[in-house]
Batch of 4 targets.
Target 1
Amino acid sequence: MLTLKESTLVLAKIRVHHGNAAITDLEARTFHEELRSDMTLGEALEAVKRFYASSASGRWCGSGDVNAIVRRMRNGAKPSEAQIAEECEARGLEGDRAWMYRRQRMLGNGPDQAQRQALTMRNPFELPAAQPKPRSTASRCAGASRPGMASLGSMLGGA
C-alpha cells in the first residue's frame, strides 16, 4: 500500500513532464485517495513511465490512468489457463490439487510456491467431518450441573 509520501512522489514524477509545478496538500491527498489501495510504489512509478513512453498527446497522467496501467501489468503477469494446465501436467497434479495449484497461480504466486501450497493446503470448500455428539442417558438425566437441579437419588436421600 502506498503511503501519502510515496503517492506524492508519483504525482511529482507526473508533474516533471508538465513543467514541474508545485503540489498542494489537497492535490497530494486527492491523488493518494484515488489510487488503488494495494498498489506498490514500484508499480505506480512503472505505470507513469509506461504512460508517458506511449503518449504523444501531451495529456496528463491521472490516477485513473495509473490504476488502469497497474491492472493491465498485473493481468499480463498472470499465466494463461493453457499455461497453468501445462504446468499441472508437468508436475503431475490432478483433481483438487490441480484446482488448488490453479487458484494459487491466479492469485499471483509463482509455480514453486503454488505447488507447495497445493500439496499442503486443504481445500477451502471441503468441510471437516462432523463429530458425533455424546448420547449418554446419564448425562441427560443427571442435570446436577444445571442450577436448581439435582439427581433423583440425591432428592430421595440415597434410596
Target 2
Amino acid sequence: MPSRSTIAKFSPLFLAAFLFIAFEILTASPWPDDRDGVNFLLGVKSYDIEFHQPHFPGYPAYIAAGKAMALFTGSAEWGLILLSVFSGVVCLFITFLVAEEEFDRRTAYIIAAALAVNPVFFEFSHKIFSEIPALLLGLLAILALGGSGKISTGRWFLAGISVGLMLGVRLSWWPFALFYVAIALFTAKRAFAVTGFLFGVLLWLLPQAAFVGPEQLLSIGKSFTSGHFNEWGGAVGTTFANGNRPALIAMRIAEVFGWAGTGTMWTRIPWALFMVFGFFTFFYSGHEKSGRIKFFGAAAALYFVWVIFGQNPEKVRHFIPFVPLSLLIVGYAIRKYPKGATVILLIYALTLPIDYSLRESDTPPTVRLKRWVDSTSNSYTLFFCGESERFFDLHPAKARFVNVTGTTNLELAVKSTWPEPDASFICDDIPGFIPAGKPVALFLARKGDPVDRSLKVYESTF
C-alpha cells in the first residue's frame, strides 16, 4: 500500500492529470490534421510503407502501439488520439519527477502545469501525430539518467532502451540517440548503455524488416531520403525549401517557448517576459546548473542543428522537444519566484480557452472542403491540390482530387486530364502556386491550431 506521504504528493498531480485527460478528449477532433496524419491512419489500417502507409521510415513502434489502442477503441482515429493523450499525461508525470529532483515539489508542480497549458504541447497531445509518444520515451531516458552522482547500470540500460524505442516512433530524432550513445561510450557503463540502445532498436527494426523485407526497406529508405533532401522535404537545398528559413525558425522557437496560440496579447506577454527572465537566471546560476538539464540541453542543441538544415521549419512539431527543456531551464526562476510564476502562469493558461472560444469550426480545413464539395458537386469535377489531396485518399469525396507537387507540373496535370471535366479547381496549397482573382471557397484555419493552414480554392484558368 502506498504511504500517506506518497498519496499526498501525487494527489494534486492525479487531479491535474484527470482534468488534462478530460479537456484533451473533449477538444479532440477525430480527423487527420494533415498528410502525415492520413498516412498514420492508413498505416494502422493497412501497413504498407511503399504506398506511404505511413511514409518511410514507417514509424513501426508508433503504428504497433496505435494498432493496439485501435483494438481497444474500435477505431484507428481514436486509437491514435488516445495514444497521444496517454503519452501526454505520462510526459507530465515524468517532467514533474525530473523537476522535483532538480528543484523542489512546488517548483515541479508549476513546471508540470506550465507544460500542460503550453498550446503546442496541449494541441499535439490529442492529435494524430507521433511526437508526443516519442517525447515520452525521450523524457524517460532523461529521468533514468539522473541528475547527479553515479548512474547505475540499470538506469543506463533503461535509458538506452527508451532512446532506441524512440527511433521507432520518430526516426528524425536521431541526434538525441547519437548524443546518448556518444556520451555512453565515455562512461564505465558503456557496454550496458549501448546494449540497451541496440535492444531498443531491434525491438522494432527486426519485426519491421521481417514484414517489409530487408531489401525493400532499404530501397524505400534510399528513395525517400533522396526526396527529402532534394525535392519536397523542406531541408536546406530542396526544391520547395522556404527562402525565409531564419524567420520561420525564430517563429517556431517562440511558439514552443510560449508565444503560441491566438489568445490575446495580454495572456502571452507576461509569460514570454518571464521565460526570457528565466533563461537569464539559468545562465547566471553558475555551479547550480544540473548535470541532467545540461545533458538534455546539449542533446537538444545537436538536434537543433539538424532541424536548421534537415527539417521543414514550417512545421512546429519538429521543435516539440524544446518545450519541456525550456521549462526545466526556467525552473531556476520559478524556484526563486514561485508566487509570481504562478500568477503569470494562470494568466497564460487563459490562452487555450480563448483560442477554442474563437474557433469558427472544430474540424480541419480539409474536412470542411470535403463537406462543401459533397454538397455542391453534381457533375464530373476535378480539384488539383497539394498536400490536402492525401485526405481524400482516406475520405473520398464526390469530386476527384489530383495531387500536384508544384506549379511546374500544374498546367500539364490540368491539360492532360481525360476525359475533360465539367469543371476544375485549384487549391492554393500547391507549392509555388500564385492565385489570380478571388477564391470560390475559403476554409479558415482553426484559431490557435499549430498545424492548420487556411485553404483557398480557385477556378482553373488553364
Target 3
Amino acid sequence: MGACCSKGDRTFDGFILNGEDDFKESDVGNEDRIPNGDFDARVRLQGSCKDLSMFTQQGRKGINQDAMTVWENFTGEKDMFFCGVFDGHGPSGHKVARQVRDILPSKLSHAFKKSKTSGNYGSGDVDEAHNNDGNGDFDNKDGHDENTGHNSFFSLWKTNLIKSFKEIDDELCADASIDSYCSGTTAVTIIKQGNHLVIANLGDSRAVLCTRGNKNQPVSVQLTVDMKPNLPCEAERIRDCKGRVFAMDEEPEVFRVWMPDDNCPGLAMARAFGDFCLKDFGLISIPEVSYRKLTDTDEFVVLATDGVWDVLTNNEVVEIVASAKKRHNAARVLVDRAVRAWRCKYPCSKIDDCAVICLFLKPRLLLTKSTSERSHQIPGYPFRGLTCYSRSMSTEDRLTVINDEITTDSKDCIALSNVARVDSIVKVPRLETGLNHRRKCK
C-alpha cells in the first residue's frame, strides 16, 4: 500500500535517449514529473528513460497507497541516483507515503552538501549511530567490500540516512495536518554513484539486485532484510519495550505488533515511519543501512513494495525484468505479472497495490531467459527459530515455529522471502489516545 502517482496535464519529452529504439513507445509524456529538485536534480515520479523504468498500479483495497520517486543527478553530482519506494498503511497511509517521498530526498541532499562541505567523511558518528540501532552489523553482508567501514562514501551516507529518517519521523509526529498516529509507511531506498550502492531499508518493501552467474544467467541477490516482527532481533526489542508480538488464530503465519494492554493496532512490520501509537513500544524508524560495491556482472536493481514480493520470488522478478523486450516497459510488465499471480494464487483475496522501480546499471546486454535455481540470500543470516512462510510453499516445506519460542540468543536477522500478505494493521486505536501522543511530540 502506498501513495498514487497521479497523472496530470504536464508533459515532459523525457531524458536524452541517445537514439535507442527501445524508447519510441515510452509513456514518459504522461508522467507526473517535478521539473527540478534541489541542486538541479531531475525528479521523476513515474515513467521511463534509458536507465530507468517505473510503474505503479492501484490494487483492490481502496486508494493506491504506494509512492515512488527517482532523482537523477542527485545532490547535483553527475551519475548519482536516488531511488525510493514507499508503502503506506492505515487510514492516512497514502498521505504519509507521499510526504516521505517528497521530503526525504531533499533532506538527504542538503545533509550531504553540509557534510561534504564540513569534511565529515568517515566520521565516527556512523559507528555510534549504528551501534544504537540494536541490531548486528549488516555492512558487509554481500562480501564485496571487506573495508566498508573505511569507505568514505558509505560512511557519509549512512550517517545522513539515519539522521534524516529520524528527523522526518519527528516532523511527522509534530505535523497536525497528517494523522500519522495509526498510519505510516515503509521505505526502501538506494543511492547509486559509479560502482557505489548504498541501501537503506525501513519495513518490508524490498530491494533485489540482478547479477550474472557463471553461465551468464541472471541471478537474484537480495539486498535488504524484510523487517518483520518475528525476526528475533526485532521481537526482542519490541518485547523489551513492553510491546507484544503474536499472530492471530485466523492468521497463524502473520506476526504483528500490539500495544501492551490493547489488541491494536496489529502492525505487520517492525519498523516504519509514523505509527506513533507503537513508537513507545518497540517500533522504530531507524533504517538498516548497507553497502555494495557494484561489479561488471551486476545488471540492474529492482525496488518494489510487498504487493510484488508476496506473489513472486526474487528469481521470478529478476527473470521477468531481464527478459522484458523493452526496458522502459520492464516495471509495467513486472506489475502485470504480479497482478496475474495474485488472481491465480489468491482469487478470494484483494490484490495489493504494487510499485516498482527498475534501475539499469549498464547498457542492455542479452541475458538468457533461464534464471538460477536458487536465490542468493544475504550471507550470515541463518534460519534460527524464525518463521519463514510462503503461500506458494507446501505445508510440509514450511518451517514450524511457535511464537513464544522465538529464539533470542542470536542477533542475526534473515531475509524472509514470500511472507504471506495481509493488511498492515487490523485495528485503529482510540482517537483520544492519539491526541495525547501528538501533544507529547510537540
Target 4
Amino acid sequence: MAPEQQIAGDWVISRELAAGNAATLTPDEVESLLGAQAHYDSQSAAFAGVDCGRPSFDSYRETSANLYQLFELRFDDLAIIGDDVLAIDINCMDADVEFLAGNTVLVAGPDRLVTVVEGVWFELKRR
C-alpha cells in the first residue's frame, strides 16, 4: 500500500502530546493548532489551512530510539505502542508553498496519527 493510502482522509488535531528538546511554538501557537484540520490523499495535502496541490510522500520506519536521539522523546511520550512505526514525510512540490507544517506523520493506528510542528508533537484523529 502506498504511503499516502495509509493516511488518506480527513483528520483533526485533537491534542498536544509533548514538546521536544527544540520546541519553538508558544503556548498561544499550540492552542491555535488544536482543532485545526488536515487532509491527505494522492493528489493533495492540507494542514491547518495551508494547501498543497502537488504532494510527494516518502515512507520509512521510525524507531523509539531514533526519536529519542532527535527530540529526546520516546514513543511512550507520544502514546505510541511498539518499537517502530511507519513514518511518512510529506513534501509540497507547489512553487508557492514554502513549507507544509506537520510534514512528518507517524502512523500510530488506523484512526490516529502523530505529527510534529516546530518541535511540538500533536495527535491527529480521523474525522
